[in-house]
Every structure is written in C-alpha cells, then in structure tokens.
Specification:
The structure is a homodimer. Chain A is an alpha+beta fold. Chain A is built from eleven helices and eleven strands. Chains A and B meet through helix 1, helix 2 and helix 5 of A and helix 1, helix 2 and helix 5 of B. Chain A binds a DNA duplex through residues 12, 14, 29-31, 39-47, 49, 63-66, 159-162.
DNA sequence: ACAACCGTTCGACGTCCCTCGAAGCGTCCG
DNA sequence: CGGACGCTTCGAGGGACGTCGAACGGTTGT
C-alpha cells in the first residue's frame, strides 16, 4: 500500500461520490450510497470493500444493514485537500448555503422512519426524566409511557416482531437515539400533526411553532 | 475536472514518484525524473503533461531543458495528506533524518556543474560588492574578476561558446545563482581544493574549515 | 410460513491507460 | 557545420479495472 494506491482509491467517480456523500458525518447504508451514485448495488459492494480495506471508510453492521462512515480525521483532510484542487467543485455548494443546512441536519432529521439529531436526544432525556422510557442496556416503554402515548392519540404499536424501543446510533451526536416501533410512531405522529416538517426534499427537519407548543405541553418542565 | 480526476493524477506509481521526488522543493528536469522513476523518457513526457495540465506541477523551459516543480502549496498539502495514509512510507525517511538533509540542500548543493543554494548567493553578493562580477540584465566578469580568478589559480575559461557568466534559477532561494563557465570553474576548484565536499552520494555540499578560511581570505570583508 | 428487503458473490464484457521503441524536432557545444 | 543531447510525438501491445445482471444467504416485518 503506497501513496499511489491510496490516491487510486479516490480516483474513481463512484468512490469519490461515496466519500463526498459521507462528508456530512452521518452514516449511510450501502444501498443508499449506491442509489446516490447511480450504480448497481453489486458495484457499490465491491467499491465499499476497497474503501474499507484501504482504511478510508469504517463500517458497522446492524442486522441486514451495513453502515458506513469516514474512518478518520486524516481522511477528511485528504478529501478536503483534493476538493481544494478540483476546479469543478461538486462539494463546494456545501460551504456556501449548506453550512446552515448541515447544522439543520445535525439538529433534526429523519433516520429511516424515526427522528435523529440533537432534538431526538432531548426527547429521550425528557421522556426518561418523566419516567416514560427505560433507557440503557434494556430499553423499553414504561406503563406511564404507554399511557402518555395514548393521551397523545398514538396507538401503542403491537402485534409486530419489531421491538417497541430500540437504540439507533446517531453519527452526528455520537449517542444512540430513539428507534423501534415507538420511535417510528412518534415521528410519524409529529409529521402528520405538523410538529415537524421536512426541509424541501431532504431528510432535514425543522420544528414548527405548533411543535414547540406541543413540546411545552407534553414534555415541558414538570410542575 | 472533478475530485476523482485530481486523485487519478496521483494514482500512478510513476507520477507519484515524480511528485515525491519534487517534494524537496528543487526543480528537476524531465530526464532526471524519468531516470529516478525508472521509466522511458517518452513515458515521463506524457505523465508530466498530465501533471502540468492538471495543475499539480509547474514547468519552466530553459533552452532544451524543461524544469519541473510543485505548482502550489495546496499540492504539497495534498501529497502530505496522502502520505499520512500510506502505510508503506517511501517518503517518511525524509521526515526523520532528512529535514536536516533538506536544510543542507537548501544551503549548498550542486546544480549540474556549478554551485546552488544559499551559499551560492552570498558568493555572488560578495563578488559584486568587490567589483569582480557584473550582475543583472547583462552579467559578466570584470577585469578585476579575471585577475581574482588568476590569483586563485583558476584559468579564465575561453575558447568555448559557453558564456562566462550566466544566471541560473535557484528554486530554493527564488533568486538566480552563478552559472556559466566561471560558475563551473569556481565550483570545480572549490571541490578539488576541498573547500566544498559532497555529503555522501547526494548533491548536497558542505563547507569545510578550509573553505571557511578561503572565504575569509578571498571574499572576506574589505579592509 | 411467507414476502420483502439488504447485501454479497460470480462471471462476462468493455474500456481505459500505462508502457515502450522508433522517428523527429529544437537547442547546445566543439 | 556536424555531433550530442533533451524532449516530444506516434502507434502498438497488454494488463488493470469498473460495470452490470443473475443467483444466493440472512435479516426484518406481516
């Protein structure tokens, strides 16, 4: 493995597109990256093997998903050094308007069907403090939590093999956030009632005034 | 020209060897680089075209020579970023003992058959101050300079179409240094008398105690 | 149990590009 | 002027690699 080999890992449009997509610090799945770059899944698989074996990307496997992220801060610097010399700046738009957009992603976003970002962690903290949620090694919903959901008009999910409460790694916050059936139901409810709305067609979410009111009413400081 | 294309420029062993060789800040000719990388001159030509067109290297043509150097500080950073991720560090020895070696090269070295580096510039300055040398747009040797050479035991070169005094670009100092027949004769004399000796088999030179004495005797502060 | 989905392996196809030698052009030196 | 040298262009050969579709194993959710 010499210098030319490392450069060769980034000397392909598809692999470069993967790395640029991963610059936002989030973890992507292999299929997401394949769709983003416009190649077949099998093609993405071989590329991802090269990038992981070469030490540029790190992987974490959860069930049938394979999450990928940039391995190292040195890799970030390498990609930035390359971008600084590429006249056609496909990544440059980020620096203009999308530093704010990246902040929005870090604040609140969709992670498949549930909420991620800094906001999702405050939800967990508030729910744990009010005794609605068990967190830690054996997460679950308490009786109070079930009643709380019913009060919100959310049917407590059941009849599925999907766990009610699950921890999902949050790559921007480096802490797990709320997934599982309850996480999905909460997120779905927040979107249908307009507490949260998507920013354009991206995964980024923003909290509406109605969302702030609901937060105060249902998760605000205890009396 | 996108990110993958820039990476592709360095994704070849030969081109990577060129760039690593040029890391010392000196200018190399195309043939030197070809010999250093072990490829045919025609191969080197095509690679150098790619690197120059891609903006990684800059060229300067002098007569039949083509001098190449790293174009930009951003290119230096890119190469260093790549080297930081390459486990097989062919360039790493530089950082250990050869930061001192690089300083030695910047101080005094051979440029073909004459002297280059910081020492060569002090020679010019001292010779100009003593009226031995005309420098600037029309460089040449003065009558006093010719007498000074004879006094040193150096025959004033003649009978050749090679100019007596010529300016040669010094890439570490960004100033021209003394070349031409006089530059070569002075350098040859300094090496044969032991004023200068080569460091190992490299082009780097070091000034001996005898060299310092000779400097004081022949170019020292005027009375 | 069954369907849907994610990821993987494999073989085949096509393309890109790295390499060299021979021939040629311009410059420098005697 | 004639020889030496540095560099370039051109064509041909050959190896490396990116791409896809089809088939398969494993996990998730109904």
């Amino acid at each position: 493995m010499d210098l030319a080999a490392v450069a060769g890992l980034l000397a392909d449009r598809t692999r470069a597109a993967f790395c640029l997509a991963l610059l936002d610090g989030r973890a992507w799945t292999a299929s997401e990256l394949a769709r983003h770059a416009g190649v077949a899944r099998s093609t993405a698989t071989s590329h991802l093997h090269l990038l992981v074996d070469g030490g540029l990307l790190a992987e974490e496997r959860h069930g049938r998903h394979r999450y990928l992220r940039v391995a190292d801060h040195r890799v970030l610097e390498l990609i930035e050094s390359l971008a600084a010399l590429a006249p056609r700046q496909t990544v440059r738009p980020r620096s203009l308007s999308a530093s704010g957009r990246q902040q929005a992603l870090a604040r609140a976003r969709l992670c498949y069907d549930h909420l991620a970002g800094a906001v999702s962690l405050t939800v967990i903290d508030a729910m744990v403090e009010r005794g609605l949620l068990r967190w830690g090694p054996d997460p679950g919903l308490t009786h109070e939590g079930a009643a709380w959901l019913t009060e919100l008009g959310i049917a407590v999910p059941s009849g599925s093999r999907r766990p009610l409460v699950r921890a999902c790694l949050d790559w921007t916050e480096r802490r797990p956030h709320l997934a599982g059936a309850v996480g999905a139901a909460l997120c779905d409810h927040a979107l249908t009632t307009g507490w949260l709305v998507r920013i354009g067609t991206t995964r980024a979410l923003t909290v509406t005034p109605a969302g702030r009111r609901a937060w105060h009413d249902h998760l605000g400081p205890r009396p």
